[in-house]
Specification:
The chain is mostly helical. Helix content is 61%, strand content 2%. The protein is built from 63 helices and eleven strands. The strands form five sheets. The protein has a three-stranded antiparallel beta sheet with strand order 1-2-3, with no helix packed on it. Strands 4-5 form a two-stranded antiparallel ribbon. Helix 61 runs antiparallel to helix 62 (1606-1619). It is globular and about 110 Å long. The two termini are 76 Å apart. The model is unreliable at 86-96, 497-511, 767-774, 810-927, 1601-1605, 1618-1625 and 1665-1673 (pLDDT under 50).
């Protein structure tokens, strides 16, 4: 692996941090500039070469003499260059005289040059870079020692460098106040742009702004020149922005640009970016990253286009079918219908076409804008009685959603890719074309997933490539700095110089310090000392934390409506907490004195909260003043003691400060899109609103004013754009709306993705995951003390109880076993990590991976029922975890009464005999408490029992037994699929399923009994998987029992039958890939729980705030058809009056999503976070007025800010924290297991290596034929131009497929068929030419094979189209297969080379993708069955429901993408009278909420794991490569430094330093101990290692395959043999991994022996205790 992604970013953070701290002390800088001996030793240093000669000033003013010297040097250089004719000499000269990167324009001066005198700032100076000293340039240093470079030529041929006017212009240009003045002007101009109604003096202000911009341009031109010269005005692309601003400022004065005048806004707003260099460089980096994504963009366009063509040809006109009213009168005859379908004409006076396209005759569902769609297929949507499904002229969604032509199909595909309300589109497709449409959508989603992975990986790689140069430069700078310090240190040893220490502490003057320390008198100091000990006590902080938690619980108890008693108690308790925190502040203030108290940032924050709380108490009687915000700020205090919560706040702070440039770019683009959208579409929404609203009222999402435009842009950034774009296309120009919305979506998502990734990686070097705090805070110390006290109290009580009853004390005192924390499980576990299902070949592979190692290892196989949740290869970590987490167990009856409690069975697998020997090791203590276990197994019944157990064990361990159980599990899962809503009508099927259920239960019971007998209870129940099997079987047994007793239809029986849906989970333990994924999830579970608690706490803040803002305000007066207007019903009293007036349809009801309590607030926020049903929540909040008042349309539009804040903080930042910690956990696992793949099995890793070999191996060149005719054809078909021509033909073929439409004329069809025939002839001719020229080598290229298959199928489809259409498949399939040729473009376009590498890396990560997707499918399957058994009768949509398994899977699939689950959940939340309990369509809402919440959480976790793992694996595989000859040479040189005698061996202790001293890609930076151990290097006598073994291991590490290292190792051996003729042969005696296992084994034996000694000592003390007592008596 070359440099793993996170390793590189972590190293970048460390290197840049160290480089920014590089400084030379003044005396060191003085010696460097003036000591010639130091300069002599540093003459080859790159930084030191920038220094002027000794005795010369570093900074010299630019004078006419300086200009004359430049001219002389330039002439001398030109003369010398003309004399040189050797090209190589010129190249060497060019290499030696490159521009110094440290002295580039815009960068600060390097530390080696020191600080210039203040009087030289903003003044022309001579060049410092030797590269420019012979060119006519000079430099100017501005504030902060930032370097600016100017041409020494006359500016605009008028102003020479020494002109006073140009000097003044330069000073103005570089002054910070000028930049501030321009920035203020831009912001003021933006403020004017935000004004809807322009005042009369706005024209004057516009002239003022234009004059300022013109003045800026003139200053830049006067100081730099216009265009002649390298550093002139027009040579900087950012200055082109100024030209555009000036031109667009005066152009409207001469031309009427109408909407085009909006282009004036964009360059002026972009000047915000151009003003500050940091923001400008960040914007340039973003542009460069887009260039690097060219291959990804091309691939994305190709894939979407191909999918759009496929959708276009499969769903031509499918969405036009509507449910039309079926008239039964004489005018509508059968001939009319036939004539309509056949000819599209009418045969009578009845206008059939007009009738079916009339909206009055089409069926509409309540609340829907479009008529109900339908289809004529068996699984398509059906029409209600009285309606018939007919094809009409219109498509849904204003006619914009369809597949009738390529443009609309492309838009629909793009909608699917972006997941914007794609569930509606899927429903429309399934209603029209049938449920097979879901297969097409699934195919599109797979393509979209691959593209998204490539985009994420491409953006991440672009970030790395941008930083590589900077990191390399920083590393070189650091090395040179250290070299300079070494030279200076040597000189200082000869002549020591002392420097006065600089005290950076800022102490207050004594007079002020005495005021802030409060040291008045002795008694006061005594009180401070006592209070300081009190507040610094760990229990004081623990009490405060408990109070904060109780305060959070109190805030969460607020709800609507509250009783008077509860409200009074709530207010009193809130006052008590306010008093507690005020007293805490007072105690800390007195104990620490103000000087010490306010030096701690958290204390300042606490004091602000207390002060605001006291102010809120004083303003409590004022109406409208609420203290909820102050109380919520107390929750943030938990971050003082909670590291993960503190990290979230750090992330937010980092995004504001460290990433301020990128954040400012994002905000600038939001502002630009907002202003442009408002100026483009404001008038259109006002003038044409009646096109989209029957009541001519503006929709909620529009651009009629600035705030609404901003909210709409934010919604697009969130991913919802299609509905707003439909409205825009109706009221304005469709093309303008399409371009605008697509640009906002693409640019916005690219900026958000970059910000998210940079924020994700900005603190990757920090220790974010700390399950065991190195430094415990006070609450943790207090908890530890409480635990110790409880343990001591428990021991003391038990000792006295046993003493009183007169029995021996079996309790071992805790202080005597503090060093022994081994569980009894360690007594019988093997020392290696070989599991029961791991073959011996894998075990041996763990021992050695080298062919030259002769030592053999003996592995023992522990017979466990199933594999535990342990990752392979973590021997050392298991020991550490056991030492820290496990406590000793005693020989109590419940521990040893099972056969396998204190016995273990080991299976020895011999080399020549495939036999198993069971060895039982008995512990005498077990027989003392359970004497019936002491039986003789060599004879009698004991021998029979032993043989019986032996047989049971052999059965359970047999591979056919496992295969049979897997088959039964799959069969039982398939049986659950048939239990749908139609089962009651199929009595025979129901009877068969009942019998099959009994058979399955009996088989699973038999399996459990066999394992109990074979393994014993203790061993069986120590496996998580066995526990899972036991619980699922228990549910089945109880369900069968209740069914036999006749209680199956009662509540308990139905619940147990529903829980049978857990049966598929038994498959988890049977597949190794699933176990690996679950092991990874289990290893990351602690950190995930921590971050989930932080997310819940953040959501608690917003939920409590939502309760305070919206509790009781979502109620409304409603009748059966619509909601009353405020003019009709103003509040609850008016609504109740209508109800009393016998209006039975009127009701005062609440929304299903509301904030009446914290729990409902959580549910509403969940829908906002997943962007499902969030518009309903936002609409209710925006319309809310007061409690028990009728909502008014958009009466409080600024409530959008609440939800925007939640999406940014509660979703963006918390998800960033979640993924950050998840990646950190995976990274720790990777380092923990030596870089092993923890998502792929060994077989899958071998598959990835094989795929890499397949794609990496270069195809042998095809020999040129000897036949002259064939040779000419060979030259033709192998030319690059021939391939270009064929690619052009392929593109034309694709274009002909795109131009097909739904209603095309017959002439067009004939022409297209002719064109298709011509293309077949062309491709057939290409095939014949290539097959003649290349012979059998034609089929060695996969692209040629693909062409042959397409040609063959095309010809067969052309000849047998009628037969195949009738019997087999639709002929469109053969036409669409031609699109496969478009893959040849990827090999032709040069921009796609990087995407090919990314795609190869993605293919290599497919096994990991398969494992995670398999687990996700199993989760979907289980929840689908559960939903089908629980919600089958709920009143839902006829397409999205749980009536059948197929519908359930479609529902679960849509919910997995976080789309559409609100519509599925809404019917489940219905309560009477909205549902009918007698018909069974009423479901308990709590069950539905738990069901959907749990599935969303689990699926979201798996989806995050899916994306994270695959992106990480893709980046990992992307970096794998084979070392080159240059790398081999580097390895040889580095080895010579550690092995000067060329003995080919070095001590193992130097391996860590050696691997750290290497260069990429072979380098393994420190800390690398764990990685080196897992490399399993052979150890030679004397703990030495051989160079060839090290090279082989390093090569296998970066390439993923040790087989490619034979050539390199042979060359390395040859090199060493040449340098050392007396080559020796070494025989390894061990390996690094085996040595570590031996150390771990020794530690286990030592700890077990110490534990045995402690037990014996405790037993002796208890034996001697009664004797001492008797003697005392």
């Amino acid at each position: 692996m070359k440099t793993w992604f996170l390793d590189f970013w972590r190293e970048r953070e460390e290197v840049l941090k160290r480089t920014n701290q590089l400084r030379l002390r003044p005396l060191q800088l003085k010696r460097l500039l003036g000591d010639s001996s130091v300069r002599t030793e540093l003459q080859n240093a790159r930084l030191a070469s920038l220094l002027p000669p000794v005795g010369t000033e570093v900074f010299r003013s630019f004078t006419p003499a300086s200009l004359q010297d430049i001219k002389q040097r330039h002439e001398a250089k030109e003369t010398e260059r003309q004399k040189r004719t050797n090209k190589d000499v010129r190249n060497v000269e060019k290499e030696l005289h490159k521009q110094a990167t440290h002295l580039e324009a815009g960068k600060p001066l390097p530390y080696i040059l020191g600080d210039p005198p203040p009087e030289l700032l903003n003044c022309p100076l001579e060049e410092l870079d030797p590269f420019y000293q012979s060119q006519k340039t000079f430099i100017v240093l501005s504030e902060g020692n930032v370097l600016h470079r100017f041409n020494a030529e006359s500016s605009c041929f008028l102003l020479c460098p020494f002109s006073c006017l140009r000097t003044v212009a330069i000073r103005i240009l570089l002054h910070s106040l000028f930049r501030l003045f321009i920035m203020v002007t831009i912001l003021t101009n933006c403020g004017f742009m935000m004004m809807s109604g322009r005042p009369t003096w706005s024209r004057t202000a516009e002239f003022v702004f234009s004059a300022v911009y013109m003045f800026e341009v003139l200053i830049k031109i006067m100081s730099r020149g216009f265009c002649v010269g390298r550093f002139t005005f027009l040579r900087d692309p950012w200055n082109w922005l100024d030209i555009v601003v000036v031109i667009t400022a005066f152009l409207p004065e001469f031309l009427d640009l109408e909407k085009v005048s909006v282009l004036r806004t964009i360059p002026r707003a972009l000047k915000i970016i151009a003003v500050y260099p940091g923001v400008k460089s960040s914007a340039g980096a973003l542009v460069q990253s887009v260039k690097r994504l060219a291959g990804v963009i091309i691939t994305t366009v190709l894939v979407i286009s191909v999918l759009a063509v496929i959708g276009q040809h499969f769903f031509f006109g499918a969405l036009r079918h509507k449910c039309v009213w079926m008239l039964s009168h004489s005018n509508w005859t059968y001939n009319d219908l036939i004539s309509y379908h056949d000819n599209g004409t009418d045969s009578s006076d009845f206008d059939f076409h007009k009738f079916i396209n009339s909206h009055e005759n089409q069926y509409y569902l309540s609340g829907h804008r479009d008529p109900l769609q339908c289809g004529n297929g068996s699984d398509a949507g059906a029409c209600p009685p009285g309606y018939i499904c007919l094809r009409t002229d219109t498509n849904p969604d204003y006619g914009l959603t369809n597949f009738d032509w390529f443009g609309s199909s492309l838009l629909s595909l793009f909608r699917l890719m972006t997941h914007d309300t794609w569930d509606y589109l899927l429903e429309q497709m399934m209603r029209s074309a049938g449920k097979f449409s879901a297969i097409f959508v699934l195919f599109v989603f797979c393509g979209g997933f691959c593209l998204l992975i490539l985009v994420l990986a491409g953006v991440a790689r672009a970030l790395v490539e941008q930083e590589k140069a900077g990191v390399a430069e920083a590393r070189r700078t650091e090395e040179e700095f250290l070299h300079i310090l070494d030279v200076m240190k040597k000189k200082e040893e000869e002549e020591e110089e002392e420097e006065e220490p600089q005290d950076d502490q800022r102490l207050s003057p004594p007079c002020c310090l005495s005021v802030w320390t409060w040291n008045c008198c002795g008694c006061w100091r005594w009180l401070k000392l006592r209070l300081n000990g009190f507040v610094m006590n760990p229990f004081f902080d623990l009490v405060i934390v408990i109070c904060l938690i109780l305060n959070c619980i109190l805030m969460a108890m607020e709800h609507y409506p509250m009783t008077m008693e509860f409200e009074y108690l709530f207010n009193v308790t809130s006052l008590v907490f306010t008093g507690i925190f005020a007293v805490e502040m007072l105690l800390r203030l007195v104990a620490m004195n103000p000087y010490g108290y306010f030096r701690v940032g958290w204390n300042v924050f606490d004091s602000i909260i207390v002060a605001l709380s006291l102010v809120e108490l004083g303003l409590a009687d004022i109406e409208g003043v609420s203290g909820a915000g102050v109380d919520l700020m107390r929750v943030l205090r938990l971050a003082r003691w909670w590291s993960t919560f503190h990290m979230l706040m750090k992330i937010i702070w980092t995004s504001v400060l460290a990433l301020r440039n990128l954040t400012l770019i994002l905000l600038t683009m939001v502002f630009i899109f907002t202003i442009v959208g408002m100026q483009l579409f404001q008038d259109d929404y006002t003038d044409h609103v009646c096109r989209i609203a029957a009541d001519c009222q503006l929709p909620r999402w529009h651009m009629n004013n600035l705030f609404q435009a901003f909210v709409l842009i934010f919604r697009i950034f969130c991913g919802e754009w299609i509905e707003s774009m439909w409205d825009c296309m109706e009221v304005s120009s469709p093309s303008v709306c399409l371009i605008f919305f697509i640009m906002v979506l693409v640019i916005g998502h690219l900026l958000v993705l970059n910000l998210f990734l940079v924020l994700l990686l900005s603190l990757v070097g920090d220790d974010l995951v700390a399950p065991k705090e190195k430094i415990k805070n006070n609450p943790m110390i207090a908890v530890d003390q409480i635990k110790t006290g409880v343990a001591w109290t428990r021991t003391w009580i038990l000792e006295h109880i046993w003493t009183l009853v007169g029995k021996k004390n079996p309790i071992i005192p805790p202080h005597k076993v503090v060093n022994s924390k081994e569980d009894n499980k360690k007594d019988y576990l093997g020392l290696t990590s070989v599991t029961s299902d791991q073959p011996l070949s894998e075990s041996k592979a763990l021992g050695s991976n080298h062919g030259n190692q002769t030592s053999k290892y003996t592995f023992q196989r522990v017979p466990v029922a199933e594999v535990e949740l342990d990752m392979p290869g973590k021997e050392e970590e298991e020991q550490k975890q056991d030492e820290e987490n496990k406590t000793p167990r005693n020989n109590t009856p419940e521990d040893c009464c099972c056969d396998s409690t204190d016995t273990h069975t080991q299976t020895h697998r011999h080399t020549h005999a495939q036999t198993h020997t069971l060895i039982s090791l008995s512990v005498p203590g077990c027989y003392r408490c359970c004497p019936f276990l002491d039986i003789d197994t060599s004879q009698g019944s004991g021998r029979v029992w032993s043989n019986f157990r032996r047989v049971c064990f052999s059965i359970t361990q047999h591979k056919y037994f496992d295969a049979f159980i897997i088959f039964i599990i799959l069969l039982s899962s398939a049986a659950l699929v048939l239990e749908d809503v139609h089962l009651q009508q199929r009595q025979l099927v129901q009877m068969l399923l009942d019998k099959a259920d009994q058979v399955f239960t009996f088989i699973f019971l038999l399996e459990m009994l066999l394992k109990w007998i074979a393994l014993g209870f203790r061993k069986y129940f120590t496996s998580v998987w066995c526990w899972l099997d036991f619980l699922i079987l228990s549910v089945s047994l109880m369900s069968l029992t209740l069914g036999m007793l006749g209680y199956s239809e009662l509540g308990a029986g139905l619940s147990l039958r529903t829980l049978r849906a857990l049966r598929p989970l038994r498959a988890l333990s049977r597949f190794q890939g699933l176990r690996l994924v679950l092991n990874t999830l289990g290893a990351t579970f602690p950190s995930m729980c921590d971050v989930m608690l932080v997310c819940l706490l953040v959501w608690l803040i917003f939920s409590v705030l939502g309760v305070n803002l919206f509790a009781g305000k979502f109620y409304h007066c409603f009748n059966a058809t619509e909601q009353f207007l405020p003019e009709e019903v103003n509040n609850k009293s008016d609504c109740l009056s209508l109800i009393h007036e016998n209006f039975s349809d009127v009701s005062w009801k609440n929304k299903k999503l509301h904030f009446d309590n914290v729990a409902e607030g959580y549910r509403s926020l969940l829908q906002v976070a997943t962007f499902n049903g969030w518009l309903e929540v936002i609409s209710s909040a925006v319309d809310a007025r007061q409690i028990e008042s009728q909502p008014v349309y958009e009466s409080n539009v600024y409530m959008y800010v609440y939800f925007i804040s939640f999406i940014i903080i509660g979703c963006f930042f918390t998800s960033n924290l979640f993924i950050r910690l998840f990646i950190k956990s995976l990274d720790q696992l990777r380092h923990k297991f030596g870089g092993k793949h923890f998502f792929m099995t060994d077989e899958q890793q071998n598959f990835s290596i094989s795929v890499k070999k397949l794609f990496s191996t270069k195809r042998p060149s095809v020999p040129r034929p000897h036949n002259q005719c064939q040779a000419r054809l060979f030259d033709l078909v192998t030319k690059h131009s021939f391939e270009v021509v064929m690619v052009i033909v392929i593109c034309l073929n694709t274009v002909t497929l795109m131009v097909e439409t739904d209603e095309q004329s017959q002439e067009k069809e004939i022409i297209l068929e002719g064109i298709y025939f011509v293309f077949i002839i062309i491709f057939l001719t290409e095939f014949l030419l290539k097959i003649i020229a290349l012979r059998h080598h034609y089929f060695c290229d996969c692209l040629n094979v693909l062409d042959f298959v397409v040609i063959f199928i095309s010809i067969m489809g052309l000849l047998l189209s009628d037969i195949m259409q009738f019997y087999f498949i639709h002929p469109k399939i053969f036409t669409l297969l031609r699109l496969a040729r478009i893959t040849r473009i990827i090999h032709l376009v040069p921009y796609t080379r990087g995407i090919r590498r990314l795609f190869l890396a993605f293919v290599m990560s497919l096994p990991a993708l398969f494992n995670i997707c398999l687990l996700l499918f199993l989760l979907m399957f289980t929840f689908s069955v559960f939903g089908m058994l629980s919600f089958a009768h709920a009143r839902m949509n006829d397409m999205f429901n749980f009536e059948t398994f197929l519908n359930s899977m479609i529902c679960m699939f849509t919910i997995t993408t976080m789309v559409g689950w609100d519509h599925v959940l809404s019917p489940i939340l219905n309560t009477p009278p909205d549902c009918d309990p007698d018909s069974g369509d009423c479901v308990h809402p709590t069950v539905g909420i738990i069901f959907f919440t749990s599935y969303i959480t689990l699926s979201l976790l798996l989806v995050v794991l899916l994306y994270t793992a695959v992106v990480m694996e893709t980046l990992n595989m992307y970096d794998t490569e084979t070392p080159s000859d240059k790398d081999l040479q580097m390895f040889y040189k580095t080895w010579r430094r550690f092995d000067p005698d060329t003995s080919q061996i070095i001590p193992y202790s130097q391996l860590s330093d050696f691997c750290d001293a290497l260069q990429d890609p072979l380098r393994i930076p420190k800390p690398n101990t764990i990685k080196l151990i897992h490399m399993d290097l052979p150890l030679l006598p004397g703990d030495k290692i051989h160079c060839v073994d090290v090279l082989s291991a390093l090569t296998a590490r970066i390439s993923g395959d040790g087989g490619q290292t034979h050539t390199l190792t042979a060359r390395m051996e040859e090199r060493f043999t040449i340098n050392n003729v007396s080559k020796m042969s070494y025989e390894p005696i061990s390996s690094t991994l085996q040595r570590k296992q031996e150390e771990v084994a020794a530690a286990v034996i030592q700890k077990a022996y110490r534990k045995h000694l402690l037990k014996d000592r405790a037993a002796d003390e208890m034996t001697a205790e009664p004797a001492g007592g008797a003697a005392a008596v």
